[in-house]
Amino acid sequence: MVQSTGWSAFQPQHSSAPAAEDVRLEPVPRLEWALAAEGHPPSLSGASPASLRRSWVHTAPEAQVLELFRKLHGSARRLPAPWWLRALDRGELPGRQAAFEIEDAVHATLRRPGWVFVPWVGVGESGFWEYAPSDRGAVQVPTAVVLTDEHPGWLNALPAHAEAPPRPVPVAGPERLAAELARIESW
Hints:
single chain
């Protein structure tokens, strides 16, 4: 037979808890940002960058998004965020819509045999594209094209590799990507 110590054994002997009206909740900045960057409702298809634009950072008024990002020191803390938000914060993009147009242009360029859009990225991040035919032999990671805020071309190509990732190769925008696609696919 199990002997119970009773619920009262776990109650404090004296109550110094504040009254309900004294309780104050303060937002946890990282949690607040995680909720703002997470897609609601989650995308079921993930077939394109546009299908991932469901979070508050994608749909709320742009000024409010920037205000919260700056309030939380987003660039300095490297908060999980789409590539374009850091560029927008620095004044390098005219607006969020311009970033969406870049994403859509890259997606249109890579809508060809062998390229696959990969939506499974961290919270708040944009997807990337992999070149499936490069995934052969000892290769563990296929050639990829990723969006970045590291330079004003907004794209990096990563050659297929088996061990340590190679240095990203900057690509000067969707137009240059189209011109260099044969070379990138040969990696």
